[in-house]
């Protein structure tokens, strides 16, 4: 089994690509065959981080680690050599005023209401309608998009640019690509914004009609960063039909409105359960939340989605993507059409 000293010795061989010195190791934990390290780099959230990540995993596994957990943070300004301080990268083309991409943030008041499910299915439906679509999985506390879409590969790095993974015609970048082994990630406040900014500047998105962002639930740092970083972002708020859920979601909507983001509409998820045998609908989580929220935010209810799972026996299965001919898949197509219409008008 590797010792802490051996791990530190091995990591000395790995260089921080920006300052050309050994990477700064903040923490090493070893538990049986599992080695977890926390590393600080001059910059993160970019192609170079992914390369360092790969080097560390290969080195530690080569030396006998069974699995490797990695966490990254950035060196402080004081730790950086003078010439590396305060670099100002300028505005990425995707964010420039003549960018043709419409940003759509998908938000919710609380977790577990289906925000990520709505994001990936709306993205897939927009792609099915012939649009060029990207997704940023910015839900740092529960980056679930790759699993939901059945993505197993990692983005490729070509000429220092990260090329998103494409699935169902949707280009995907996820926080999950920047950690190994599902290690829990604890991001400090300012890093989140930087990471997001890098997702715009370091990723080769190509031309996009729509870029959807799966935000963390609630009205925390990342949600706020998105609001300030993307002044013309549109928003979709997801809620369940329960009155309390709608009440909490109203806060996310209020934040969008306060920062001048147009709320495209509300999606009510888990609206009811429909019996396949009798066709009877049961309103398991209550009723009326979506309507109430839409009214409160002076926007439209874009659709109501019943409870249901994708068909497991289909080809090209992904755990959370409904097929185009699935009852719920059809609902998503209708929502996607409404979204396009609302944006064009
Ligand atoms: N209409 C639905 N019918 C059945 N299950 C659903 C439906 N929508 C979502 N789910 C399931 O509910 C769970 C939560 O969904 P999801 O992860 O999309 O929520 P979330 O709001 O993004 O949560 P978090 O922010 O905590 O990641 C998942 O297991 C998902 O598969």
UniProtKB/TrEMBL annotation:
Iron recorded as keyword: yes
An example molecular function term from Gene Ontology annotations: ATP hydrolysis activity
Chain residues that bind ATP: 109-116
Keywords: ATP-binding, Hydrolase, Iron, Iron-sulfur, Metal-binding, Nucleotide-binding
UniProt entry tagged with the keyword Iron: yes
BP-aspect Gene Ontology terms: iron-sulfur cluster assembly
InterPro entries: FSCA_dom_sf (IPR034904), Mrp-like_CS (IPR000808), Mrp/NBP35_ATP-bd (IPR019591), NUBPL-like (IPR044304), P-loop_NTPase (IPR027417), YlxH/NBP35 (IPR033756)
Highest taxon in the source lineage: Bacteria
Gene3D superfamilies xref list: P-loop containing nucleotide triphosphate hydrolases
Pfam families in the cross-refs: ParA
UniProt similarity note: Belongs to the Mrp/NBP35 ATP-binding proteins family.
Assembly information from the UniProt record: Homodimer.
General function of this protein: Binds and transfers iron-sulfur (Fe-S) clusters to target apoproteins. Can hydrolyze ATP.
Identification of the protein by name: Iron-sulfur cluster carrier protein
Gene source species: Exobacillus caeni
């Amino acid at each position: 089994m590797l010792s802490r000293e051996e791990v530190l010795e091995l990591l000395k061989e790995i260089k921080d690509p920006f300052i050309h010195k050994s990477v700064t190791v903040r923490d090493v934990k070893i538990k049986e065959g599992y080695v977890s390290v926390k590393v600080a780099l001059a910059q993160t959230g970019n192609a170079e981080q992914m390369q360092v990540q790969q080097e560390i995993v290969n080195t530690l596994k080569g030396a006998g680690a069974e699995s490797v957990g990695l966490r990254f943070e950035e060196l402080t300004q004081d730790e950086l050599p003078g010439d590396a301080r305060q670099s100002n990268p300028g505005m990425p083309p995707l964010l420039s005023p003549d960018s043709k991409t419409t940003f759509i943030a998908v938000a919710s008041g609380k977790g577990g209401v289906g925000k990520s499910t709505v994001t990936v299915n709306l993205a897939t439906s927009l792609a099915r309608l012939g649009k060029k679509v990207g997704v940023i999985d910015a839900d740092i506390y529960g980056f679930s998009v790759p699993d939901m879409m059945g993505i197993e590969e990692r983005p490729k790095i070509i000429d220092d640019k990260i090329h998103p993974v494409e699935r169902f015609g949707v280009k995907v970048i996820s926080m999950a690509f920047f950690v190994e082994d599902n290690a829990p990630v604890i991001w400090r406040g300012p890093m989140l914004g930087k990471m997001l900014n890098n997702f715009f500047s370091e990723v080769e998105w190509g031309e996009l009609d729509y870029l959807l962002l799966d935000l963390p639930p609630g009205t925390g740092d990342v949600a706020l960063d998105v609001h300030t970083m993307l002044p013309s972002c549109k928003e979709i708020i997801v809620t369940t039909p329960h009155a309390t859920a709608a009440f909490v979601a109203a806060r996310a909507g209020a934040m969008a409105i306060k920062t001048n983001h147009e709320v495209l509409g509300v999606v009510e998820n888990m609206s009811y359960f429909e019996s396949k045998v009798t066709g009877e609908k049961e309103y398991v989580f209550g009723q009326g939340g979506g309507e109430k929220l839409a009214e409160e935010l002076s926007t439209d209810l874009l659709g109501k989605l019943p409870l249901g799972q994708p068909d497991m026996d289909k080809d090209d299965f992904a755990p959370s993507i409904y097929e185009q001919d699935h009852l719920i898949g059809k609902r998503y197509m209708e929502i996607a059409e409404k979204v396009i219409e609302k944006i064009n008008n």
